[in-house]
Amino acid sequence: MVTTRTSGRGAADGAPVPDRLLAVATRLFAAQGFERTSVQEIVDAAGVTKGAMYHYFSSKDDLIREIYRRLLGLQTRSLERIADGPGTAAQRLREATADVVVSTLAHLDDGVVLMHSLHLLAPHIRAQVRAERRRYHERFRALVAEGQREGSVRADISPDLATHHFFGAVHHLGTWYRSDGALRPRQIGEGLAEMFLNGIAVQRP
């Protein structure tokens, strides 16, 4: 699989130490797996000492949590901007679905790391990550429910089911997306948004 490496860039010597560590850890975790990546490899690649890493991150688990927090924070701010913005619920839902696909593809290593590593984390960190993700999904779900109230989304579809169905597709982008493929991120985002909205929209005569 060929993925984008935007998350792994920015590990230049002049970058702040936490940013260098996160960039290197993301790249290594995505390339060779969380379990097979040692703290020593991370600090060597980042050009820092173990002491410097432990000043900012208590463990590899802590690095994973921060990788996810960074991506989720970006996507949450974008979703809130769209959900609270102008337009009908259906228009905002379409924009939100395309946006999360594009942002996921722009930070694909982050998503791949989480999908493959979440079950390996310490229980309390895993619970925190899942709680943060659940709050994000609930904001998306609220937009689906708003579409039902305005009459643009079918009333016979569960907003929970629609949300889980859509994010199931998002979470598996890393299993098939190729940065050198024919489809660009915006095309994929708009295509998935179209398919999702067509499936839940009220069909007008």
Automatic annotation (TrEMBL):
Keyword entries, A-Z: DNA-binding, Repressor, Transcription, Transcription regulation
Transcription is among the record's keywords: yes
DNA-binding region of this protein: 38-57
GO molecular function, one term: DNA-binding transcription factor activity
Highest taxon above the source species: Bacteria
Domain HTH tetR-type: 15-75
PANTHER family in alphabetical order: HTH-TYPE TRANSCRIPTIONAL REGULATOR RUTR, HTH-TYPE TRANSCRIPTIONAL REPRESSOR KSTR2
Name by which UniProt lists this protein: TetR family transcriptional regulator
Organism: Wenjunlia vitaminophila
Upper classification of the organism: Bacteria, Bacillati, Actinomycetota, Actinomycetes, Kitasatosporales
